[in-house]
Amino acid sequence: MTGTMPWIVCLLGSTRFREAYDAENRRLTLEGKIVLTCGVWVHHEAEKENSPEVKKVLDELHLRKIDLADEVRVINVGKYVGESTKREIEYALNAFKLVTWLEGPFGTQAVCEGCSHVGYAAVGQPRAHLEFARDGWKMVPHRQNGTGGYALCPECADTPEQEIELARMAR
Fold first, then answer.
1. Which residues contact 54 (CB under 8 A, 6 or more apart)?
2. Does residue 101 sit in the same domain as residue 116?
3. Is 155 helix (H, G, I), strand (E, B) or coil?
4. What single string gives the DSSP state of each residue in 12-38?
5. Considering only CA atoms, which of 28, 29, 49 is closest in space to residue 39?
6. Residue of 50, 54, 142, 151 with fewest CB within 10 Å of its CB?
7. pLDDT tens digits along 75-94
8. What is the DSSP string of 32-99?
9. Interatomic CA distance for residues 157 and 138, integer angstroms
10. β-strands 118-121, 108-111: how paired?
11. The pTM is what?
């Protein structure tokens, strides 16, 4: 493969919205993105496989998918966000992942690695990274292949990487 790695998006939300997951998976894949999504569709204790032990394994596996992602896309049909999804969103934000939403009013947000400021792009903005760039935000890659990384707000955009690392360790 030549060039840079494609952007990686992890879908999360209630598994009752499988059609919305499938539609978003298709849309993002056709945009050339790698999509990490549910591998097992169990919810509401509707299937034998949905035991507490299996749920624990699947929940942990989904956190690892979030770790791999550059962006987390919340499938919040009707603006519904359940308890498991809230935990995953909090995990993603604490890992400084870009969190975007299928339905507003949340819009798109980024958390500055230097000062923890949360910035928002317009609701429904499909190219939020461009809007953040116009607003003076800087996306800093940290993987050797140039993907992933962290966001810096305009006030921290010129902060040396060593100082950013110290700020991260202090949290």
1. 42
2. no
3. coil
4. EE-GGGHHHHHHHHHHHHHTT-EEE--
5. 49
6. 142
7. 988 878 888 888 898 888 77
8. T-EEE--SS---TT-STT--HHHHHHHHHHHHHHHHH-SEEEEE-GGG---HHHHHHHHHHHHTT-EE
9. 6
10. antiparallel
11. 0.60
Tell me the two tokens of residue 75.
Answer: 């499938």
Task: Report the chain's C-alpha Rg in angstroms.
Answer: 17
What is the rounded distance in angstroms from the CA atom of residue 126 to the CA atom of residue 130?
9
Clarify whether residues 72 and 123 are in a common domain. Answer: no
Q: Are residues 117 and 97 in the same domain?
A: no
Enter the tokens of residue 165: 């690392």
The amino acid sitting at 116 is: S
Cα–Cα distance between 8 and 72 in angstroms, integer? 9
User: Given pLDDT bands bounded at 50, 70 and 90, which one contains residue 45?
Assistant: very low
- The pLDDT value recorded for residue 78 is 84
Dihedral pair phi/psi, residue 42, rounded to 5°: -115, 140
Contact (CB, 8 A) for 153 and 114: yes
Q: How far apart are CA 20 and CA 155, in angstroms?
A: 37
User: What is the number of other CB atoms lying within 10 angstroms of the CB of residue 61?
Assistant: 12
* Together in a domain, 100 and 46: yes
Same-domain check for residues 92 and 30? yes
